[in-house]
Design brief:
The chain has 380 residues and is an alpha+beta fold. Bound molecules: 2-acetamido-2-deoxy-beta-D-glucopyranose (8 copies).
Length: 380
Amino acid sequence: MIFAPLSLGLVLLPFVSAAVHDVQVGGAGGKLEYSPEAISAQPGDQVVFHFHAKNHTVTQSSFANPCGLKDGGFESGFMPVPVNQTDNLPTYTITINDTQPVWVFCRQAANTPASHCGQGMVFAVNCGLDGAPNSFTNFKKSALAIGASLSAAAASPTGAPAAQWTTAAYGGLTIPAAPQVTPVTQTITLGSEVWTTTYNSYPGSPGPTPAAAQGVVHRVVVGGPGKLAFDPPSISAQPRDTVVFEFHQKNHTVTQSSFADPCRKLNGGFDSDFVPVPDNVTSDWPTWSLVVNDTAPLWAYCRQKTPASHCGAGMVFAINAVENSERNFTAFQNVAKALNGTAAAQNTAPTTTPANGAISVRMGGAGFALAVAAVVASFF
Ligand SMILES: *[C@@H]1O[C@H](CO)[C@@H](O)[C@H](O)[C@H]1NC(C)=O
Ligand SMILES: *[C@@H]1O[C@H](CO)[C@@H](O)[C@H](O)[C@H]1NC(C)=O
Ligand SMILES: *[C@@H]1O[C@H](CO)[C@@H](O)[C@H](O)[C@H]1NC(C)=O
Ligand SMILES: *[C@@H]1O[C@H](CO)[C@@H](O)[C@H](O)[C@H]1NC(C)=O
Ligand SMILES: *[C@@H]1O[C@H](CO)[C@@H](O)[C@H](O)[C@H]1NC(C)=O
Ligand SMILES: *[C@@H]1O[C@H](CO)[C@@H](O)[C@H](O)[C@H]1NC(C)=O
Ligand SMILES: *[C@@H]1O[C@H](CO)[C@@H](O)[C@H](O)[C@H]1NC(C)=O
Ligand SMILES: *[C@@H]1O[C@H](CO)[C@@H](O)[C@H](O)[C@H]1NC(C)=O
């Protein structure tokens, strides 16, 4: 059999060495764009970004959140280049590992009307074709929409941002916008103690002053015979408070996640690891403790997937969920069920939840030192 030269070429293609793709970042007239804006690349290929004048970054984001750093994503850092520098431009190189889309934005002036991303400075590798839901056009459109809402917020007298709904990382679910957060530094005086705290303030957030200087202790029961739940499932707590998770029957975890991604571990988040409790245990429950450092909502779940996803069955927990907002506890639990539950779990009516059923007890004289000891496990 004789091969035509063309088919010979195709046969040899897999042995061709990895390609290098050059992308210009910024450039003449201080334009805010990557050029080209979208490329396709094979696993093993390299993309070399050349930074022109101004002060840009190459930062990985996600399709769902074009102007936000992806958890664990790559990031070039800021690359300031003077206007008169036209050669020896700094570069940053990424290697393409697979055929999945890679989304990129410039982090300069993030979350302000001057946001480079919000002005359309985005880039993609292996995105969908035009017409596909994950096309470059749609990605850039949503970056520009973020820019427009940042400008609108700056122009509005209250500074209230237009709500931005996003799409979940998987499962195609729509996620309500996160509240606008303002970091506040405040000096707190409580009895004879004075300290300075920095916390995140947002509509509906609790105050930064704990009920006692040492904080209070909230007890939360994890699991139990026939129960895939945290009890109470939702509490409010202040900085310095301690949450003591008391593990009952089965084999559960308390693992930090995020509102938009309830059943996957948050990068750098807390995790108790699995705490198996045999059926015949009736006292001396093992515990695991967490100190609350901020007023911002904390989202958590049970990581157990055997025999079925506990998180998908609704085994989630929240601290400081804002009940009168779209991001209330029930909404969080519904996201978990929708993303990780079985079809049956998805059809379950939402359970009602007390806003704050926490059992709170004042901590004794152990004081703030207790707060540093994150793990108080007393395994049987
Ligand atoms: C580059 O931008 C970052 C972030 O805005 C800023 O912190 C840094 O000072 C800038 N560098 C120069 C040299 O302008
Ligand atoms: C750019 O301008 C600065 C300040 O005017 C000067 O110090 C520097 O040498 C110039 N650099 C180049 C590459 O011309
Ligand atoms: C490819 O994998 C390396 C090593 O894990 C990682 O540093 C890099 O960011 C990955 N590249 C992309 C485009 O995700
Ligand atoms: C607890 O669950 C984890 C994850 O499913 C498993 O690896 C571990 O063996 C279990 N421990 C016990 C004692 O059942
Ligand atoms: C529970 O049962 C195991 C094995 O049957 C036994 O070794 C253990 O002592 C029992 N524990 C309690 C608290 O009764
Ligand atoms: C609070 O800070 C302590 C000490 O840095 C840390 O161990 C703990 O995980 C933090 N709490 C949360 C909820 O992140
Ligand atoms: C939830 O589903 C995601 C995507 O399939 C998976 O990565 C994750 O491990 C699941 N988590 C749990 C606790 O079921
Ligand atoms: C709480 O969440 C539920 C479920 O998503 C939603 O129907 C309800 O409107 C939310 N409550 C508020 C006050 O937004």
